[in-house]
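Input/output pair, single chain:
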Amino acid sequence: MAGAADDSSDIEKLYEFGERLNEAKDKSQNKSDYEGIIAAANGSVKAKQLAAQMIPKFFKFFPELSDRALDRQMDLCVDEDIAVRVQTIRGLPLFCKDTPEHLEKIVDVLAQLLIAENKERDAVHKALMSLLRQDVKTSLTALFKHLGSTEDRNSEDGSAWESIRDKVLYFIRDKVFPLKEELLKPKDEMERHITNLVKQNLHDVTGAEFILFMDFLKSLSLFGQNAPVERVQELVEIIEGQTDLDAQFDVSDVDHILRFISCLEMALPFFKRGASSNKFVSYLAKQIIPVFDKIPEERKLDLLKNLADCSLYAKPQDSRLLLPSVVQLLKIYMVRRKIEEINFTCIECLLYALHHLASKTPNVTNSLCGYKIVTGQPSDRLGEDFSEQYKDFTERLSIIEDLAKAMNKKLTQGMAEHNKAMTAAKTEEEKEAVKKQKQNATAGQRTCNNILAMAQPLHSKAPSFIGDQKISLSWKEVTKVAVPSASATATTTTGKKRAANPANGSGTNATKKGRGGVQNQLVNRAFEGLSGATTGGRGRGGWRGRGRGRGRGRF
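Output:
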């Protein structure tokens, strides 16, 4: 009975303190009443709940007591009773209503409370959203501080800080990003601010987190379809930073190979919009291709497919840099003897890259392939004898063409067998297996046909390089393109620069899909499993994934 009486007395005193403060014209003269409210926060559960409401309500009138009041409210945030904690959390935004200088500290506290569950967590979410609507710039800055490295935190609390970091990231992903149109105002200023916050916190992210942030940045008006090239270039520079293009390439570092493949894949849409691929192209030419033979077999095809895609948007100076390496690789894959085991898709990639790169700087092929292309520049080197190069290159082409025709015939004949097998298949598993075989055969036929289409013009002394998107690579979805009129501009280049090419944004097939589907889905596949555990290995060196898994074989 004594406990109940004391509880009732504490509640009665709190109501008296509150009533006098409400009635006072100059509330600052009632300092003892506010001190009584703060002291009551040490009382019973009901007293704590009532004090948690009153402390923020009268907080602004007693700046000299602000530290004591805030400390007591923070103590109540970790009280044993969940009702007290929830009530306290609900009152936290009120501290900032008239005293915004405390907003950053309150957001920081709420961020740490995101590890709570159920009703308590919902209260934290509502409190944070209230503060974001009050001052989005300061609130976001405080939240993003929790996304940086946790290495400088107390090592004993490392796992706790990691858990908080993850919860803050989920909150930003689920609550902030979807409401960007409502929260990021004024739009230009706040989109730039959150972009800067993202950029500052990308040095210690997993692959999955990097995708999350890049997807968000791409959704901003700042980087929309009407954005100037320099802003698109900014996105490419962010991707370059994650790719470690300033680091020496270590062929034994599988993580770096995977990261390069995935990041280049992610950058391709921005090359299409006019951003420079110079750093990626330079890294390919100087670091990767010279040691290409040492790269794991299961990654070589991934790199060559990226190379093919990248060549479409390479600038003339980058094309000049990369062409010698492409021709060198092409000669390795285009054997001088007819053998059955040959990777046709690799040859398709390299021929595609050769055509697109050479269409922008055709005379470079004079010394590489023995052509006689005249541009009027000293680099034509027409006075030199490159007949041996021409003989060697065209002989290799002829052998590959013969092999492609033979393979095409074999695949066509095999289609009849697949059709019979499909008719005979009884279970869904058997039908699915035959269907997959037919799909592989169809892709193989497309590969062979592409090789034949691209090899044929290269026999000329001054070939016409295919510098448009007339060739649809075999692993990509076929897109129907309108047939141009007879008066349309030529789509090939013979010894001179073309007036229109994909490098300057004049490609005709703007809707072409990426490797078998939407590009970002493939990047996600490349990053599968990269988030890893919640502790340790978060840095770029911890990126792990299965890549796109195209494997080995003839195609």
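Confidence is low (pLDDT under 50) at residues 481-555. The first strand starts at residue 465 and ends at 466.
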